[in-house]
Amino acid sequence: MRFGRPLLGMSAALALLGAAPPGDIAFPRGRIFPESITVTRGGELFTSGADDGAIWHARPGDAAATEWLDPARSGMVGMLGVFADDRAGLLWACGRPKIGDPDEVRDHASALLAFDIRTAAPKGRWPMPGGAKSTCNDMAVDRAGNLYISETAGGRIIRLKKGAAALDVWLADPRLEGLDGIAFDRDGTMYLSSVRTNRLFRLPLDRTGDPGALVELTPSRPLDRPDGMRFVAPGRLLFGEAGDHGGISEATIAGDRLEIRTVTGGKPGTTSAVAYRGNVYATVAKLRYRTPEMKGQDAGPFFIYTVPLR
Length: 310
Fold this sequence. Notes:
By secondary structure, the chain is mainly β. The protein has helices at residues 10-17, 71-74, 103-109, and strands at residues 25-26, 34-39, 45-49, 55-58, 66-69, 79-85, 90-95, 111-116, 122-127, 136-141, 147-151, 156-160, 168-172, 179-184, 190-194, 200-203, 215-219, 226-233, 236-241, 248-254, 257-262, 270-276, 279-284, 303-308.
């Protein structure tokens, strides 16, 4: 595993930011805004830095995360979704623009990126259709190796077909306003969530890989900004709820209904969560501290927090 440049000495950094609660993983500097988290089959955790374009790495049980990819190497000013693609040996990442930058800089920053998951070497960059008017948010990969992006600003699913040179608009539907979470079940069915409208959907793919009928699902309780959806096991999905009353939720698929179970210990504002060996690892991005109204306020320390999946 290749890591980025060293930061503060670990003991100094943790003394500055405060030690992580037992089982949690600290970040060794402030204002990380970790929006997304993903895990490999071997337990490597990666998180994105929404404010600076860094990607962070840790293992379950680590006291602190390490900067795996610094912004100077990524060429990005911010990151949203990250997704570990074990079969391809890639870490996919969604670049995001920064408010106030010139239009051409913002258009360049809105892109899908790929890195070698072992060395962090860049493996590709694909501009988003529409540039900065598009929001590359999160990703999922189907059994054929095609990658699908939740595009939040336009309510679209963007696809990178395996081997293709450019992204294409795979599905646009007004019901997908605020599209955020995206995941495949074991049977190849896609599941989607809207962080703005609190809606959940099922989307089958036909034999040619084209989208089937989009079906809205009924959750067993109201949701609070569902975010960062991940596959857990056949018929089970995990996601964060990014609202003030949210946390971590597990959904069990039952036809057109989702039975929602609140995972004990989830924190309000959770933007992404993954399961590994009976535990959940989750992030709280605190993105409101990036708004003009709160930008100067102290966001406090950031952690990858850990709770049992029970």
